[in-house]
Amino acid sequence: MPGFLGLVRRDLQLALHHSGDTALVLAFFVLTVVLFPFGIGPEPDVLARVAPGILWVAALLAALLSLDRMFLPDYEDGSLDLIVLSRLPLGLAALAKIVAHWISSGLPLALISPALAVVVDLEPGAMPILVISLLLGTPTLSLIGGVAAALTLGARRQGVLLSLLVLPLYVPPLVFGAGAIEAQETGGDPRADLLLLAALLAAALALAPWAAAAAVRQATE
Amino acid sequence: MLSRFANPARFVRVSAALLPWCAGVSIALILLGLYLALIASPPDYQQGEAVRIMYVHVPSAWMALNVYLFVAAASAVALVWRHPLAEVAARAAAPIGACFTFVCLTTGSLWGRPMWGTWWVWDARLTSVLVLFFLYLGYIALVNGFDDPARGSRAGSLLAVVGVVNLPIIKFSVDWWNTLHQPASVLRLGKPTIALSMLAPLLVMASGFTVLFVTLLLIRMRTDLKQRRIRALQLDRLTPAPAPPHTESGLPARPVAAREGI
């Protein structure tokens, strides 16, 4: 456990050191959302109708943007080999890196989302659901992304490959995340979608670190 | 059993004997199936002649799923036992599976136009098959994405095993979400809800597609093995002469091939 927390702390310190990366993710999120009113038109009814989808797709793309930083710097400077050799089980080490990635990208996205919800005229009553769905959904995105990031270590054109692998697997969180907000907006019950999001998170939490560890091992072999 | 077929030379011998039979059987089955489907079977009482699209659409959909299962199983064998032929098989099967998925999607779209009045709907079954198609593409891109082919194969194997979670979602999507695509009518508990005159050509086509897959797989695997052999022979020819000549500085001169990394 101390090794796990130590690794999380180290990665967070590194993320803080390069805080430009997190800022870039947030800026990308803001800019993507702001682009939609230009494309769709400023009518509040239309925007409110598509707001859940816009917010979720933008958050998903922003989370994708920083995925290649999860393992690549450590792979390039050799720290990943030391992590593999350390006494910490590799599954836990992978989980630590994924947690650190989520704290430095997914969590800030969820926290600033209410500000952007105002821009696209999301109904104020749906804002708590937006934040909850992002808090439940973005860890799943980081977990799935961690597997893909580890698989593509050392590949040519890692960025493009990463998005090709990850985007199809991001469909379920997107469907349920946007579905929960829409249910709240249209007077339905968002609980079913939120529970499914939580189920996805539980499944990914159990499987993804293990798969990411296997991928890291074959990359450093 | 596993190790008996791990020898590529034996595989090449056995597959050479099997290949003409497989090719012949698949052509015969598909021709018979096409005759039964296009001429001998009755039109549907509701869908008319358009129902004949089913005889291509449904078998290719089955193949799309089964080939993915095959890729995943071969990948698991490659990961667990480092079976040399399993990796070759998984890599060779993926593009065939992607083609079946593409055929399934296009015929479904052609069928949907007269029946549902639209080329495409965001129905659960359609969407999940589209995701399967992207999964195939991702696997192919990942396998070819590394300079070292061995790394690509291993990374691809892991991805294929991880992607299996998608299969039950596709299979049961029509039962879980009650959407436009009709539920399963052949592989279900109890009796199939399809008339025998339509079931027979469907099954003939399905077995024809399966043997076609085996034929194409054998051809692709043999090609892959031959390409590797050619590469190995080329590398052999490029290996330098036994004693490297010394240069004036006293340092051994490195052979050109090694420096260029050919």
Question: Could you characterize what this model shows?
Answer:
Chain A has 221 residues and is mainly alpha-helical. Chain A is built from 10 helices and no strands. Chain A has one domain (2-220). Chain A has helices spanning 2-17, 19-40, 44-65, 72-77, 79-85, 90-119, 127-151, 158-169, 171-185, 191-220. Chain A starts with a helix and ends with a helix. By secondary structure, chain B is mainly alpha-helical. Helices cover 71% and strands 0% of the residues of chain B. Chain B has 8 helices and no strands. Chain B has helices at residues 8-40, 54-81, 84-116, 124-143, 149-162, 166-176, 196-238, 256-260. Chain B starts with 7 loop residues before the first helix and ends with a helix. Mean pLDDT of chain B is 81; it is low at 249-262. The chains are: A mainly alpha (221), B mainly alpha (262). The interface between A and B is medium-sized, with 22 and 23 residues.
Précis, in short:
With 221 residues, chain A is mainly α. Chain A is 84% helix and 0% strand.
SSE blueprint:
The complex is a heterodimer of chains A (221) and B (262).
Chain A: H1 2-17, H2 19-40, H3 44-65, H4 72-77, H5 79-85, H6 90-119, H7 127-151, H8 158-169, H9 171-185, H10 191-220
Chain B: H1 8-40, H2 54-81, H3 84-116, H4 124-143, H5 149-162, H6 166-176, H7 196-238, H8 256-260
Helix pairs in contact in B: 1-7, 2-3, 2-5, 2-7, 3-4, 3-5, 3-7, 4-5, 4-6
Query: What global shape of chain B is seen?
Result: globular
| Content-based structural category of chain B | mainly alpha
Helix tally of chain A? 10
Mean pLDDT of chain B: 81
What CATH calls the topology of chain B is Four Helix Bundle (Hemerythrin (Met), subunit A)
- Kindly report the greatest chain-chain contact and the residue count on each side: A-B, 22 and 23 residues
Cα end-to-end separation of chain B: 37 Å
Helix content of chain A: over 70%
Tally of DSSP helical segments of chain B: 8
Task: Provide the helix percentage of chain B.
Answer: over 70%
Q: What's the CATH class of chain B, please? A: Mainly Alpha
**How many beta-strand segments of chain B?**
0
The fraction of residues assigned to DSSP E strands of chain B is under 5%
CATH architecture of chain B: Up-down Bundle
